[in-house]
Design a protein that fits this description.
About 40% of the residues lie in helices and about 20% in strands. The protein is α/β, with parallel strands linked by helices. It has a single domain (about 1-150), classed as SPOUT methyltransferase, trefoil knot domain (Alpha/beta knot, 3-Layer(aba) Sandwich), CATH 3.40.1280. A five-stranded parallel sheet has the order 2-1-4-3-5. It is globular, with a radius of gyration of 15 Å.
């Protein structure tokens, strides 16, 4: 199952860019043997998007029919790392071919434009900068693959 982070905004060279690239590379390398990956990223330039509906449309552009869609949203459901891993593994086992993880612009997503079955997930009640959310999501993707692979990267308790 392919997985793509789709984000409004661009990460410039720096520590966040380095971390996102590193975690997605690790997830891709480890995931191959477990039917997961590649893990990629697609950025939308907010300067070319006039409003929230346009941002959401850009994030959904070219989405494969039947894709698992998880939109990061402050009102979404908080998932433990283990639950996140189980969600990915279950989707893969059910034959889902791709997953898209959406990080909207400053005003979030146009909910009415999200496909049926899209899930809202959250990283808690705190407000996080978009570039850090992208790092956290990339790390959680790697952690999910690690859990599926039985790697000692994740420790419970």
């Amino acid at each position: 199952m392919r997985a793509e982070i789709r984000a409004v905004g661009r990460l410039k060279a720096g520590p966040e860019r380095t971390l996102v690239d590193e975690y997605l590379s690790r997830a891709t390398a480890m995931g191959r043997a477990h039917g997961l990956g590649p893990f990629t990223e697609r950025e939308s330039d907010p300067r070319t998007l006039k409003d929230r509906p346009a941002e959401t449309a850009a994030l959904l552009d070219g989405l494969e029919p039947g894709a698992l869609v998880l939109a990061l949203d402050e009102t979404g459901r908080a998932l433990s790392s283990l639950d996140f891993s189980r969600l990915l593994g279950r989707a893969r086992d059910e034959g889902v071919r791709s997953a898209a993880f959406l990080i909207g612009g400053a005003d979030g997503h146009e909910r009415s434009a999200l496909p049926a079955g899209a899930r809202l997930i959250s990283y808690g009640a705190a407000t996080w900068p978009h570039r850090l959310v992208r790092v956290m999501l990339a790390e959680q993707l790697y952690r999910a693959v690690s859990l599926i692979a039985g790697s000692p990267y994740h420790r419970e308790g």
